[in-house]
Amino acid sequence: MHKKLYIPGPIEVSPEILKAMAAPMIGHRMPEYARLHQGVTDKLKKLMATQDRVFLSTSSAFGAMEGAVRNLVGKRCANFCNGAFSDKWHGVTTSCGKEADAIKVPWGQPITAELVDQTLATGKYDAMTLIHNETSTGVMSPLTEIAQVLKKYPEVVSIVDTVSSMSALNIPLAELGIDCCVFGVQKAFALPPGLAVFTATERALTRAKSVPNRGYYFDFLEFAAADEKHNTPSTPCISLIYAMDAQLDRIFAEGLEARFKRHEEMAQYLRGWVMEQGFGFFAAEPYRSLTLTCATNDRNVDLAALKKGLGERGYAFDDGYGKLKGQTFRIAHMGDMQVADLREITTQIEELLK
Ligand SMILES: Cc1ncc(COP(=O)(O)O)c(C=O)c1O
């Protein structure tokens, strides 16, 4: 039995997308691929409101996240940490041999513009990493305010993970001035996993030129050279790129404003239900994520039993990430989901909790 996915990634993939993935194979050095690649990167640029380079990486998000620190950290990196994925990114940064500090706030709290300002004002850093939407805790940090502060520090290359936020709300990269934005496609894009996207400003590419030991697979300069021919350095996941092409067409057919509004409506519905049911929120106000809700288990429900019960009914449910297991549960509201899908799962949960 297929379990309908309500976990915060991978997200349920529509049959239309699965069909797009079944397109006959082409060679990545054939003109057909260059046309597909250019079409997809042009559409991504439109979505992200940027003319910066957009690269397609055949990897999960962490591949491109590791690549970003390998290419862009010269002197020292400030890794802002407020959850499991940002903590892990710090570990990845140091394991690449980079000098880095973890600038930590408690899980559930956002990274604020003030914290970024104070940290960068020390003059110690030439790069920083930030996770816009910490999927482990359901916290969305204030990216617009942070981006404003980053403009004070032109020597600092900014690397931002929008893994679980890109396409659910407006993230206009050029206006924000983000040097490198990274995301995977199995979250708000509702595609099967295996493709990551990253961007690079000219400033980022100039930094990469000065950084040794960039390796090969994620070398930004290899990507930039291949991009001149609308291509990738090594064989890409062509089926997923077909899927991305189809999904971008669907995104523009829905309309960006309508898509952003749908995500707001889903978040509002779920937050309302969480309160009505007597649960709380793990994320501090007003930093609750738009794409998933991390609820605190204030009713002391046996979440493992609830997960099992939902599984038997054909639903995949998340009973908390890592150290938050049992204390919180997370429900995704992103991708192709509708409020009606959320009503379906909340009705099931209510029945099981009776
Ligand atoms: C915010 C965030 N960053 C990074 C990752 C890691 O992505 P991947 O497993 O695709 O490498 C995830 C996965 O859930 C995530 O939610």
From TrEMBL:
UniProt similarity note: Belongs to the class-V pyridoxal-phosphate-dependent aminotransferase family.
Superkingdom field: Bacteria
Cofactor(s) listed in the protein's UniProt record: pyridoxal 5'-phosphate
Positions bearing N6-(pyridoxal phosphate)lysine: 187
A GO molecular-function descriptor: alanine-glyoxylate transaminase activity
InterPro entries: Aminotrans_V_dom, PyrdxlP-dep_Trfase, PyrdxlP-dep_Trfase_major, PyrdxlP-dep_Trfase_small, SP_NH2Trfase/AEP_transaminase
Keyword Transmembrane helix appears in the UniProt entry: no
Biological process per Gene Ontology, one example term: glycine biosynthetic process, by transamination of glyoxylate
Binding residue positions for substrate: 330
Coiled coil: none
Identification of the protein by name: Aminotransferase
Domain named Aminotransferase class V: residues: 89-316
Organism field: Geomonas silvestris
Keywords, sorted A to Z: Aminotransferase, Pyridoxal phosphate, Transferase
